[in-house]
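Q: Hi! First time doing this. I have a protein sequence and I read that you can turn it into a structure. Is that right? Here it is:
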Amino acid sequence: MDSRAVRTFRVFVVVTAVVAIALGIVAIVWPRPSLVLVALLFGVYLVVAGALRVVAAARGHGTPTVWRWTSGIVGALVAVAGLVALLDPAIPLVVYAVLAGVGFVIEGIVSIVGGFVGHPGSSRVPTLVSGVLSILGGVVVLVAPGLALTMFMVFAGIALIVVGAAALLLLPPRAAVRR
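A: Yes, that's right. Below is the predicted 3D structure, encoded as structure tokens:
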């Protein structure tokens, strides 16, 4: 590889790793404000994406009318969801937590049923234990969605720090740049 390419790659890896580590630290130190920021950014994204979809539907000359109407309505709904997220960022966060909790409970029920019925390639006891733990986790998320989201942000922060540190540790050696 060309020495300039290696040098450019090293700079890219260092910058992205440092950003990941910094964001990870922020997420761990300030998990709730970080969640609110993520919800606000998501709200901005939804407003922009919805508005662009409405514009595309309005300007979609030559496309089927059904597509234009459907796309326009979906775009308007997406933009409204974004406005809701901007007005009260807790709403999409709580909705996410509730959906995750319900998903855990459903997954747990399916695992328990699978454990009793048995399916090829799976062991009964680990499947049942997994199902029970999934239901318990889902109930905890449903009972305390704020705590669950905060813990999610802390674990996400830890993951960012680990990924950033690993990227720095796996940098190509400087000797590769000099060749």
